[in-house]
Amino acid sequence: MIIRNPVAAGGFYPRSSSELRVTIEKFMRRVGEVEKRMILGAVAPHAGYIYCGEPQAYVYKSILENPTFVILGPNHAGLGASASIMTEGMWRTPMGSCRIDSEVARNILENSEHLEEDLSAHTQEHSIEVQLPWLQYRFRDVKFVPIVLGTSDPKVFQDVGNAIKKSIEGTKTIVIASSDFTHYGDVYGYAPVSGGPSNVLNYIEKVDMEAAKAITDLAPERFLEVVERYSATICGRGAIATMLYALKDNALKGTLLKYSTSYEVSRDSNAVVGYCGIIIE
Predict the structure, then answer these.
(1) Quick one: CA torsion of 209, 214, 220, 222, rounded to 10 degrees?
(2) What architecture is domain 3-280?
(3) Per-residue confidence of the chain (281 residues) as pLDDT tens digits?
């Protein structure tokens, strides 16, 4: 059996299972009561928990039941195929192992013209891995399908989204898009405004709220248009668009549960990342 060991433990989240559980519990308590819902999809950030734990907690606390999770993420490392899926194996985290739902994964692969089975694209990618401990905290026996996208081609997003839609029809499945939002600062090669923290934060929030509105309106084309218009550095744009295409015909509404930025923790306006916790019903 293929075993995919964690690469983000000790960096994005704690390496020890006890410390990881305490960290997740801290954020779960911080967000308070969150209505549990029968959701179809979500957008959750994938930065270090210290920065984006609240939006993540809002999303994962809102999930009512434990179905199969299709988790879409960007390919930060640029390894392997441009659109990659794994159809078998286990992913380990400090909190245990999550099993790939092979039946759902193979159906998605068979229904897509662009997806390839490619382990190498997943070996160093953190965006899916960091979602798993939250699911493990909430549920036992987590089953999921990992898909990473390293392309900007909308045709691929539509193709993979349609493949997911066909493959999960009649099943209990939640589609999660793993994405941070605007990355601002010279370190990210994106600094379209200057001035003090208020100017920077206002600009970032403007871009992020336009993108979030397109998501909650279930409008993938408008979302991609917002990204293009602002040259927005939303790293999981493909994951988000694909999720929207997968759910477009069945979803009724989206809700932004929480928005925050790294500035709230770092107090550094020279390098700021936005985070949204969004659910789709």
Answers:
(1) -90
(2) 3-Layer(aba) Sandwich (3.40)
(3) 899 999 999 999 999 999 999 999 999 999 999 999 999 999 999 999 999 999 999 999 999 999 999 999 999 989 999 999 999 999 999 999 999 999 999 999 999 999 999 999 999 999 999 999 999 999 989 999 999 999 999 999 999 999 999 999 989 999 999 999 999 999 999 999 988 999 999 999 999 999 999 999 999 999 999 999 999 999 999 999 999 999 989 999 999 999 999 999 999 999 999 999 999 99
Q: What would the DSSP string read from start to end of 55-120?
A: HHHHHHHTB-S--EEEEEEE-SS--S-SEEE--S-EEEETTEEEEE-HHHHHHHHHH-SS-EE-GG
What is the DSSP annotation of 4-60?
E--SSBTTTB-SSHHHHHHHHHHHHHHH-----B--SEEEE--S-HHHHHHHHHHHH
Predicted TM-score (pTM) above 0.90: yes
Write down the domain spans for the chain: 3-280
Kindly give, in sequence order, each residue whose CB lies less than 8 Å from that of residue 216, ignoring residues fewer than 6 positions away.
253, 254, 255, 256, 278
Which residue from 79, 100, 74, 75 is spatially nearest to 89, judged by alpha carbons?
A: 100
Question: Pairing state of beta strands 68-74 and 143-149?
Answer: parallel
Mark out the alpha helices in 95-219 (DSSP H runs). Answer: 102-111, 126-129, 132-138, 154-168, 197-216
CA–CA separation, 90 and 238 (whole Å) = 24
SS3 at position 171: coil
| Residues facing 116 on adjacent strands | 84
Cβ-Cβ contacts under 8 Å for 153 (sequence gap 6 or more): none
Q: What does DSSP assign to residue 250? A: T
